[in-house]
Predict the 3D structure of the following.
Amino acid sequence: MLGSPVARLVSALVLAGVVATQATTQAWAWTTRYGHVGAADRALRPGCHRYRYHYVVKPPTDDWILETWLYDPRGKPRGSGDFAPGSDPDRGQSHFGICRSTVVPGRFTITARLSWYTPGELPTDPPVHHKRWFQPAHFRLHR
């Protein structure tokens, strides 16, 4: 029966699943509209070295921050970076330090999130925080 407690519980669980899926999808919706990150394929050299990557941000305001994260082929975090308008340009290069003895060769992934703030509707309102995830960038380090 549609009005039975079991049917209502099932309906509520299905609805909760749909809402959770949509919330997760929107939080991780990837974009290139606000910028991108990237790196070239390279050789994984013996020892510890710096491997360069580039970034471009196109924020709608001058109050922004870009955060980047590097993941190795096994999905383990291997580094991070952050950029802000007072000290960094809206396009540039940076690097991740990688030691060959601690990683395996393969496909590495850079993820990036751009955050910016806009004024609230009223002068007494707090600033509104906006976040956008960039399309992940992949590159290979081979032996």
